[in-house]
Amino acid sequence: MHKIVFLLGMLLAAGAVQAEEGRYQALPLAGADGGKGGGRAFILDTRDGHVWVWSENELVVAPDGSRRYGAGFLYQGKLRPGTRPGEFIDPKQ
Fold it and tell me: Is residue 66 part of a domain?
């Protein structure tokens, strides 16, 4: 009996892990103008609608106020589903 419960638990856990596969989608973005270069990517959480931009060469401000360029994520906000193709979604809503 314990083996059956254990196996069912393992199957349920495996299904939950598979459901998360593909949750985050990334698209490459063009590099910055003016030779600042660096890789950039648009990252979308397809489950909850959160959006980030990852940049290889972003201005980073440390807690002590010092500044440097380095890799980082910029949170862009949360999207909501549209009602029709081409609809403009106001980020303030």
Answer: yes
Asked whether residue 5 is assigned to any structural domain, the reply reads no
Q: Domain residues for 52?
A: 22-78
- Does some domain include residue 87? no
CB-count burial class (<10 Å; 0-12, 13-18, 19+) for 90: exposed
Number of separate domains in the chain:
1
Nearest to 77 by CA among 87, 91, 88: 91
Does residue 92 fall inside a structural domain? Answer: no
Q: Angle at the Cα of 46 (from 28 to 8), degrees rounded to 5?
A: 125
Q: Are strands 50-61 and 67-78 parallel, antiparallel or unpaired?
A: antiparallel
Q: How far apart are CA 77 and CA 39, in angstroms?
A: 21
Q: Is the pTM above the cut of 0.90?
A: no
CA distance 77 to 21: 22
- At 84-93, the pLDDT tens digits run 999 988 777 6
